[in-house]
Design goal:
Nonspecific Lipid-transfer Protein, Chain A, alpha+beta
């Protein structure tokens, strides 16, 4: 039996993907840089129509980025109704989604003229990985990542 994927969860994941893509302009991954991008994201989300924001769910997200020097940057983000309300250096203890990647993979996306295609290439190659903490979360992630059109829509909504 196939479970339907709730729209609010797909939109939450798309928002996460757009935030991750926006990180690709960063030259360093640290808390001040992360907060700068989160502030920019939260300012953009204020411009999104209320109907879309109301469909966005809440997620606890851990991002793990291996820097080019081999060190690891970990940050947790508590997303509530489309806004990132809290960040936790080192990560959140009970995430619903874990994103694992490398600085070089994000740099590849950032230098591309077609960021969506580059992002898709990196995720398909396993260089950017999303892990749901349940089988249903995994199914939702796969649904979002399989739709280039949906990724482009989300990217255009925030950055177009």
């Amino acid at each position: 039996m196939r479970m339907p994927v709730p729209r609010h969860t797909i939109l939450s994941l798309a928002v996460l993907l757009m935030l991750l893509i926006s990180f690709t302009d960063a030259f360093s991954f640290d808390m001040p840089t992360t907060q700068k991008y989160i502030n920019a994201y939260n300012n953009q989300i204020d411009n999104v129509p209320a109907v879309i924001k109301s469909m966005l769910g809440s997620e606890k997200i851990n991002m793990i980025i291996t820097r080019e020097d081999g060190s690891v940057f970990r940050v947790g983000m508590d997303m509530v109704s489309a806004r990132i309300k809290r960040t936790v250096e080192g990560g959140i203890s009970d995430p619903t989604i874990i994103v694992t990647t490398t600085q070089s993979a994000l740099n590849e996306v950032g230098k591309s003229k077609d960021r969506i295609a580059a992002f898709k290439t990196q995720t398909d190659a396993g260089q950017i990985r999303f892990e749901g903490k349940s089988w249903l979360a995994d199914a939702k992630i796969k649904a979002v990542l399989s739709s280039t059109t949906f990724l482009q829509f989300g990217y255009d909504l925030f950055f177009g």
